[in-house]
């Protein structure tokens, strides 16, 4: 069996990734499939942490755009990420994995408070750690929370799961001539205004040398392929920009 390229990863999932073909909420079949792919990676001996967005339930920016106070809307979005985290925890534990949910907003009855050293210890013991409630602060996205947590736990790489093959020169849905980037520097992401992650998350990754792989979650087995170092998706970091 191919040895994993990475020892410790942080996987960033959007809330929408849990919807499957549904228009809202969580599709249990999709949730179970993602959980099984996480287990495949974990079975290789890889330490796995997750951050899950809340857009399938509530998105703070859209709430603010409709007249709601931005801080209140963002806190509601953070609570949505807790719901998704608990759902993922349940799916993983049904497969026999030990898990811990750590929340940036204290809610001791259902999750541990986020403590960096404790999170690292859980990972070292083979537990899957799910970071919920973003950073605990409004005006920060779950992309930023993922980049922050990845650096705090000293992850080897951050994996961002999407619905397309990787990062393209333009929207591949609208532009049939869009080209896929195989590798991309963080600086180019900022200068070209590519919608990889928000600018704060990109800046954090660039300043701290955190590699990022953007890949298609809808292709079964892609998480495992990325962890094994196969040429899947787009590698973003201190690398030259290459398209195909």
Reconstruct the topology from this structure:
Elements: E1 8-13, H1 28-42, E2 47-52, H2 60-65, H3 70-94, E3 99-103, E4 112-113, H4 116-124, E5 128-132, H5 142-152, E6 157-162, E7 167-168, E8 180-185, H6 186-191, H7 199-208, E9 212-216, H8 222-227, E10 234-237, E11 242-243
Helix pairs in contact: 1-3, 5-7
Q: How is this structure best summarized?
A:
With 244 residues, the chain is of the alpha/beta class. It has helices at 28-42, 60-65, 70-94, 116-124, 142-152, 186-191, 199-208, 222-227, and strands at residues 8-13, 47-52, 99-103, 112-113, 128-132, 157-162, 167-168, 180-185, 212-216, 234-237, 242-243.
Task: Characterize the structure shown.
The protein is an alpha/beta fold and 244 residues long. The chain has one domain: Acetylglutamate kinase-like (Carbamate kinase, 3-Layer(aba) Sandwich). Helices cover 36% and strands 20% of the residues. The chain is built from 8 helices and 11 strands. It has helices at residues 28-42, 60-65, 70-94, 116-124, 142-152, 186-191, 199-208, 222-227, and strands at 8-13, 47-52, 99-103, 112-113, 128-132, 157-162, 167-168, 180-185, 212-216, 234-237, 242-243. Strands 1, 2, 3, 4, 5, 6, 7, 8, 9, 10 and 11 form an 11-stranded mixed beta sheet that branches. Strand 1 (8-13), helix 1 (28-42) and strand 2 (47-52) form a beta-alpha-beta unit. Helix 1 (28-42) packs across helix 3 (70-94) and helix 5 packs parallel to helix 7 (199-208). The longest helix is centred in the middle third of the chain and has 25 residues, at 70-94. It is globular. The mean pLDDT is 93.
């Amino acid at each position: 069996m191919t040895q994993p390229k990475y020892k410790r990863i942080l996987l960033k999932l959007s809330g929408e990734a849990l919807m499957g073909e549904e228009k809202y909420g969580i599709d249990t079949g999709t949730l179970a499939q993602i959980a099984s792919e996480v287990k495949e990676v974990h079975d290789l001996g890889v330490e796995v942490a997750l951050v899950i967005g809340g857009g399938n339930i509530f998105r703070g920016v859209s709430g603010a755009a409709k007249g709601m106070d931005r801080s209140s809307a963002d806190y509601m979005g953070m609570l949505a990420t807790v719901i998704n985290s608990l759902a993922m925890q349940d799916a993983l534990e049904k497969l026999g994995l030990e898990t811990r949910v750590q929340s940036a907003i204290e809610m001791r009855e259902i999750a541990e408070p986020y403590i960096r050293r404790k999170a690292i210890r859980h990972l070292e013991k083979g537990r899957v750690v799910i970071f919920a409630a973003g950073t605990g602060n409004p005006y920060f996205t779950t992309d930023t929370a993922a980049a922050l947590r990845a650096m705090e736990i000293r992850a080897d790489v951050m994996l961002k799961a999407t619905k397309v093959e990787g990062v393209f020169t333009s929207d591949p849905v609208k532009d049939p001539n869009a080209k896929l980037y195989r590798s991309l520097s963080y600086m180019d992401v900022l200068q070209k205004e590519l919608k990889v992650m928000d600018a704060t998350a990109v800046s954090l990754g660039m300043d701290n040398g955190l590699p990022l792989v953007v890949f298609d979650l809808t292709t079964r087995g892609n998480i495992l392929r990325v962890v094994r170092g196969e040429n899947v998706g787009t590698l973003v970091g201190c690398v030259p920009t290459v398209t195909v």
